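To: structure subgroup
Subject: Chain for Friday's discussion

All,

I'm putting the inputs and outputs inline so they're searchable in the archive.
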Amino acid sequence: MSDNKREQERNELYRTIWTLANELRGSVDGWDFKQYVLGILFYRYISENFTSYINKGEWDAGNNEFDYAKIDDDVAESIRDEMVQEKGFFIKPTELFNNLLLKIRKEDKEVKEKSEKNGKEIEISDLDENLNEKLQEIFKNIEASAIGSPSEENFKGLFDDIDVNSNKLGPTVIKRNKRLKRLITVIGDMDLGNYQDNSIDAFGDTYEYLMGMYASNAGKSGGEFFTPQEVSELLTKISLLDNNGKMKTEVNKVYDPAVGSGSLLLKFAKILGKDNVRNGFFGQEINITTYNLCRINMFLHDIDYDKFNIANEDTLTKPQHWDEEPFEAIVSNPPYSTKWKGSDDPLLINDPRFSPAGILAPKSYADMAFIMHALSWLATSGVAAIVCFPGIFYRGGAEQKIRKYLIENNYIDCIIQLPSNLFFGTSIATCIMVLKKSKTSNDVLFIDASAECVKVTNNNKLTDKNIDNIMRLFTERQDMEYTAKVVPNSVIGENDFNLSVSTYVEKKDTREKVDIGELNRKIAQIVAREQVLREEIDKIIREIED
């Protein structure tokens, strides 16, 4: 299929999502309502994924008439244990999304026919009264199906944020259920095709579009965990380059210590193909709601339960992947200048992640703690690309001492100044720090990419061309006037280990040059003209007085 056809499909999908969000949002704030939209979308996805998997097995065996959605629950129970081991979960046929959707449509049709026959309106159906209870039971059953299996942690609490009894959906049970019915119907009408046969990643694209749409309208609450897709792509491509500037075609494991919604990890699946991330996707997230969204995102991008491990804890004080490190590729957009325990916890200074620097990041600014954590868990041949708040590159105190440690041990490979207004919820011009443990030169490449963007509505955006330009500068690693500078570590030390790009890459003077001689001549002409005007005015006044 052509790129134009794919783009048409994607744009049509986005228009449907936009209509859905605006139609159903109502009294529910868009940022809260995303959980319902994404939750029902996820329910549809795993229902279709599960059904397709079973049907394919039967069809391959010659049973071409088989349809899992149409068999009895009692018959389906015979394969429960097998499916939990293979897929990580189990859904009874009657609890599949499409069967619930068919029931909603059937009841609505019956209500309409009875209304027309009796000449009066019949306001409610069975699901108008109990859909919320039905959904709650289905979600509980899906999660419970994984208990005691290797996939238990990946499904535990996955639907917790979809509160089908919330007053945000409506003041009464019937009004809440009518909105849930409409939500299920609209998502059921979305042309997502067969998830395996789509020319676009329909479920994944839907998720990313919704998250971007909601994040852009949610200020800091949305942007704090959502990294724009083009920034994710840049970070991923940087982390995949070897020391010869060649793009790797596979990696062992990828990791994000502040994983958010998981968009950074999933870029590896898009660029390399999920099977070329051989041992899986790993991340940690402190916020429970965002943690749930991340796991949902993994499933919606067809990452099986045994290929990802997302943990819910504080990465800096309770890291959950000691048994999995080191990682060949680390990417992250950690929270800017967040607080952490730091020196209040006497054990942290002896933590092997932080102790090499001899000092902890300030309690009010945990940025350097995330960097030290990433460095510690980075494989010898690996690359870490981390989005950073610019203040950590020039502030004194503990942060300066940590920069000193990083430079003197030759761990910093590159600092890239990004354009402002790239991220939702902040206009700050952030930077990317690239870390390596096996550098071949004792210097740092500084790149000023602040102009590499286009303006889209209220934000700036990296285009494919912008990303290509930055990658070219990164791989060529040469001085370029006003754009890039390779600086020896010794020179950085002479500058008090300041890592600000502006310290080393001169800004181009775009001011218009002024010819002083020409300017003086124009001023003299203006003064002379002013004198002539004054004499003429004085002459007119004298004539009037006479």
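Points worth raising on Friday:
Residues 516 and 522 are 10 Å apart (CA to CA).
DSSP finds 19 helices and eleven strands in the chain.

D.
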